Amino acid sequence: MKTILLSVIILLPIGCNASAAEPDTLQGKALFQKNCTSCHAVQTRIVGPALRNVSHRHSEAWLIKFIHSSQSVIKSGDTSALRLFNQFNQTVMPDHPSLGDQDIKNIISYIRSESNNAIAKLPITMAPEDNDPYKGESGFVRQVVYIDLPGTHVPILPNDYRTWFFIAVLIFLSLLTLFTVIKAKTLIVNLKEKHGQKTITGDNLS
């Protein structure tokens, strides 16, 4: 009897830990909606990449480290983190120190579930990884030019000073061109009127 009781006492914490390690998809959905939806969606790109099948592209351990502190992973020289950071115009992903490892596992479980549910619904024309219709193009093209392609396009971010400066220069040049055209037309009209007056004066003298 003592041996059985001792076995139960030893195995009980192991059973509890195994149960706790199981990801909770519903809890993951709630955490995803609270912490992630301002920048991410499963099937479409928003500010950050679409997260469909993200667990196929990165290990669970890598995702946990990246979600906890993306900049720490980037500064470590991780090639995948650097590629994502540069691909998305070096937009800094906020840290999530309040999310525990199990919370992130729950979120990954929800994303995996949504990815599996979405496979049959995806159109043939769906863009490739990260749902980026402008993959390989410059940040300016990807942000400003809107083409009728699948996916959600990225707005110009407030801290993207280079793009804003470029737009300001374009607006200035456009206004300068318009001003020059108007002044040129006014000058032509004045010259025509002056020439016409000289012609009339010459006719009167003759």
TrEMBL record:
Ranges for domain Cytochrome c: 23-115
Superkingdom, taxonomy of origin: Bacteria
Keywords in alphabetical order: Heme, Iron, Membrane, Metal-binding, Signal, Transmembrane, Transmembrane helix
Gene Ontology molecular function: electron transfer activity; heme binding; metal ion binding
Ligase recorded as keyword: no
Signal peptide: 1-20
Transmembrane segments: 164-182
Pfam families cross-referenced by the UniProt entry: Cytochrom_C
The keyword Heme is annotated on this UniProt entry: yes
Record protein name field: Cytochrome c
Organism: Mucilaginibacter glaciei
Lineage: Bacteria, Pseudomonadati, Bacteroidota, Sphingobacteriia, Sphingobacteriales
